[in-house]
C-alpha cells in the first residue's frame, strides 16, 4: 500500500524559506510523478509543482515560479519542495501526491491525475 508522509511545515516570516519533504513507501514503480498541492482556508486545493521520475521534468504554478523548486532524492523515494521568498498568500496546508506513470496528456497540476495522497503539513507565513 502506497503511503506518503509530508514534513517540514511550520511558521515562517514573510521573505523566509522552508523545505518540505515527501517520503513515499509501499511501491516499486520505476516510472511515477510526484506533485505538491496546497489548500488555503476557504479555498480549493490547487496544484503547486510536480516532478516526473523518468526525465526529471518539472512543472510549476505561475504563482510560485522563481520562488519554489521541486527536486527528488535518488537515495530515497519522494520529493522535496524548497520554498523561498515566502509570502502570506503561501499560507496553506501542503499535500504531497503521487501517481504511477503519466499519460500523453498528463495534467501535472490537476488533482484528478493523482491516486495517492499524504495527510498534509501546515505552512504559515506571518510576521
Offer a quick outline of the entry.
With 127 residues, the chain is mainly beta.
Structure description:
The protein is an all-beta fold. It has no helices and eleven strands. Strands 2, 4, 5, 6, 9, 10 and 11 form a seven-stranded mixed sheet that branches. The termini are far apart. The model has no long low-confidence stretch (mean pLDDT 93).
Q: Helix amount, in percent?
A: under 10%
Class based on secondary structure composition and strand pairing: mainly beta
Low-confidence stretches: none
- The backbone outline, from C-alpha atoms, is globular
In total, how many beta strands? 11
Element string (H = helix, E = strand) = EEEEEEEEEEE
Distance between the termini: 40 Å
Strand content: over 45%
**Roughly how many Å is the radius of gyration?**
14 Å
Summary keywords:
127 residues, mainly beta, seven-stranded mixed sheet, four-stranded antiparallel sheet, 48% strand, globular
Layout of helices and strands, plus pairs?
Elements: E1 3-7, E2 10-12, E3 18-25, E4 32-39, E5 46-52, E6 58-60, E7 68-72, E8 78-83, E9 92-100, E10 116-117, E11 121-125
